[in-house]
Amino acid sequence: MTLANGRTYLAIPGPSVMPDRVLQAMHRAAPNIYTGALVEMVEGMVPDLLAVARTEARVAMYIANGHGVWEAALANTVAPGQKVLVIATGMFAKGWAEMARGLGIDAEVLDFGDRSTFDPAVIEEALRADTTGAIRAVLAVQVDTATSVRSDIPALRKVMDASGHPALLMVDCIACLACDDFHMDAWGVDVMVTGCQKGLMTPPGLGFVFFNEKANEAHDRLDIVSPYWDWAVRSNPEMFYQFFFGTAPTHHLYGLREALTMILHEEGLEAVLARHEKLAQTVWAAMEAWGKGKGRGHIALNVTDPALRSHAVTSVRMQAPNATALRDWVTDKAGVTLGIGLGMAAPGDPAWHGFFRIGHMGHVNAHMVLGVLGTIDAGLKALQIPHGDGALEAATAVAARA
Fold it and tell me: Percent of the chain having pLDDT more than 90?
C-alpha cells in the first residue's frame, strides 16, 4: 500500500516547483515573433531582470541552462591561454573550472572543501602573488547547490580590492537568485550568471549573464568571441531576433514574464527574500532536532554555521545508506522527491548513500515545506532510523513566528 497517490511534490533544489500561473501563461498558441505583443513584453522584462539582480548593468539572455551561461560569461571575457582563479566551496565551482579548461583557459582552483566558505587570507595571498596580472577573473559560486554553502560575496570583493588586483569578479547565482540576498552593483560584481529554473520559477531553458562596463571592456579586448555566445548584440539588439541570436524561446518568455510579475510587482522582492529565509529556518530547526538525543550524529546539517547556510537549499548528512533509503521511502510511500547528494562522495562509494538535499526555493510556502518535513519524519519512523524528537514542533514554532 502507498500513500503517494495524489499530487506529487518535487522538493529537489531545482527545477523548483512551477507556479500554476506560470504554466498557464505558457499554455497558448505560438505568437508572432516579429512584431507586436511578444516583442513589447520582452523589452519590458529587461528592467525587471535588472531589478532582481539589483543592477544598472546590462543583461544578455540565452536559450541555455546554467552550464551554457558559464560558457557565455567566459567566452565574452577570457581568451584561450589566459587564466582564471576559481573559489570552490563545493561541486559547482569546480564544474565552472572544468568549463574554463574546455575553452582552453588555465583554471587555478582554490578548494575550501564542502562544508564551509572560503578563507579570505588564502585568496588575497594568491592574488598578491600574481604580480603580472595573469589572472583575468575570479570565479565564485554564491550558493553551491550541492553543499548548500552560501559564500560572502562582499567579503570576496573586499579581498580583491585589498590586493589591488584588477581581475573581474564573476559570480554564479544559479541556485539562489531571488532566494538569497544579492546586490550586483553594491557588492562590486562584474559578471553574474543565473538560470530561470530555480528562484525565477520558470521551466528550465533560459539563462542570463549580467555584466558591467568593466566586463564589457574585457569583451572588447578579445580578438574573437563566439558569435552565438557574444553578449554585445544580445544585450543591445536592433531587431527582436537578436535577443536570442535567432528564434525566441517564446513560451518560456511568457512564463518568465508571469514569474517576474509575481516576484517584483505582487509579493515584492524583499518579501520574497524574507519568506525564503523563514522557510529555510524551519528546515534547519527540524534537522537540528532530529540530530539530537538518541542517534546523535546520524543526522546533521552539512553546514554547521547558520550564517553560511543558503535560504534556497539545505544539504543533509546521515549515516549511509540511510539517506538513500529515506529518499526512496518518501517517494514510494508519500509522493515526495528529495534531492540526491551531489559531489559529497563518488557514486560508487557506499558513502554516497549518506546524503540528501531539500530544495526550498521559488514557489514554496509554509504548508509545502512543513509537509516535506512531516513526510521525512514519517520516513525516519518507518525505517527506524535513529533520530531526536521534537522536529516538527521546532519547525512549526519557527513558522509561527513569521
Answer: 97
CA distances from 388 to 38, 230, 290, 309, 354 (A): 54, 53, 4, 22, 18
What pLDDT does residue 191 have? 98
Q: Between the CA of residue 52 and those of 49, 76, 106, what are the distances in Å?
A: 5, 22, 32
Backbone torsion region of residue 100, taken as left when φ is above 0, otherwise alpha when ψ lies between -120 and 50, otherwise beta? alpha
- CB-facing half-sphere around the CA of 144: CA atoms within 13 A: 33
- Among 70, 66, 109, CA closest to 86: 109
Query: How far apart are the C-alpha atoms of 16 and 101, rounded to whole Å?
Result: 30
Confidence of residue 296 (pLDDT cuts 50, 70, 90): low
Residue with cell 522536529: 391
pLDDT at position 346 is 86
What DSSP assignment string belongs to 291-356?
TSSTTTTSEEES---GGGB-SSEEEEEESTTHHHHHHHHHHHHH-EEEEEP-SSS-TTSGGGGGEE
Average pLDDT over residues 62-69: 98
Asked if 311 contacts 277 with a C-beta cutoff of 8 angstroms, the reply is yes
Q: Give the cell for residue 151.
A: 559564500
Query: Is residue 50 within 8 Å of residue 57, measured between CB atoms?
Result: yes
d(Cα 244, Cα 306) in Å, to the nearest integer? 40
Residue 122 has a CB neighbour count (10 Å cut-off) of: 13
Taking CA atoms, 103 is separated from 79, 82, 178, 195, in Å, by 8, 10, 30, 21
| Residue 218 identity (one-letter amino acid) | A
Nearby residues of 135 by Cβ (< 8 Å), 6 or more positions away: 83, 84, 85, 108, 126, 127, 165, 167
Secondary structure letter of residue 375 according to DSSP:
H
Q: Which 3 state secondary structure label does DSSP give 192?
A: strand
β-partners of residue 141 are: 172
The whole-angstrom distance between residue 220's C-alpha and the CA centroid of its chain comes to 29
Residues written for the chain:
402
DSSP string across 3-35: S--SS-EEESSSS-PPPHHHHHHH-SPPPPSSS
Are 260 and 45 contacting, i.e. CB atoms less than 8 angstroms apart?
A: yes
- Hey, what amino acid is at 175? A
